[in-house]
Amino acid sequence: MKYLAKIKYLGTHFHGFQVQPRGRTVMGELSQGLRMALGAECKVTGCSRTDAGVHANEFCITVECDGATVPPEKLPVAVARYLPSDLALYYAEKCDDDFHPRYDVISKEYLYRIKNCAVYDPFEYGRAWFVARPITEEGLLRMSTAAKHFLGKHDFAAFMSEGSDVIDTHRTVHGISVTKADDLIEIRISADGFLYNMVRIIVGTLIDVAFGRRSPDDIPSIIESKNRTNAGMTAPPEGLYLNSVRY
């Protein structure tokens, strides 16, 4: 049977999703838990390769396990006892054998959370980027204005970190928003796909815009340059979530 399942996890203590020779990974923990729950080796395929420290509210996977007889609706409960407290499989359904969780994606949404306050909140450790300098209403407006330039299909090479072997750096951004409630700023970006550290670099660039280090009107020329050194050099390490996936 082939399952389409949804998981969520706190990425603080994971070295990303994909199995690595060293380090604890989401895929590694999942594979072990599923093997114990189903009594057989399972092939786990993810919708994305999240980096170390990235969290997920809705991360989609497929699970292929020969001879599995557990009904999809019972899989979450069956595997729950074998998973750690920072990882949960909370939904499953049967899917077609040719379905692929990565290549059949229509869009993904990433959420970046920023705590904009003078005193750090320990309950947000690893879950938000702490920015002590106040971001004014004018700064938020500048961020929102700049964000609109990312909409549509562009070559986002300027917003990709080194170390990626991706050849086609074109992506289509379907939506982007900047909102603030009290001292929490949320930046949501949905697209048909993302480059390595693309969301982090976009967020860093928007913060530069907020503080007047760049103009909102600089964004088109940065995109057109296809040069990483022209985008914001700050790639914030914390606060990134894969928020949802749509097929």
Distance between the termini: 20 Å
- At the first level of CATH, the class of the largest domain is Alpha Beta
Helix count from the secondary structure assignment: 5
Sketch the major β-sheet. Answer: 10 strands, mixed
Indicate the CATH topology of the largest domain: Alpha-Beta Plaits
* Number of individual domains: 2
Strand content: 25-35%
Question: Any guess at the CATH architecture of the largest domain?
Answer: 2-Layer Sandwich
**CATH level-4 homologous superfamily of the largest domain:** Pseudouridine synthase I, catalytic domain, C-terminal subdomain
Q: Which word captures the global form? A: globular
Order of helices and strands: EHEEHEEEHEEEHHE
Summarize the structure.
It is built from five helices and ten strands, in the order E-H-E-E-H-E-E-E-H-E-E-E-H-H-E.
Please give a handful of descriptors for the protein shown.
globular, Alpha-Beta Plaits, single chain, 2 domains, 20% helix, 247 residues, alpha+beta, ten-stranded mixed beta sheet
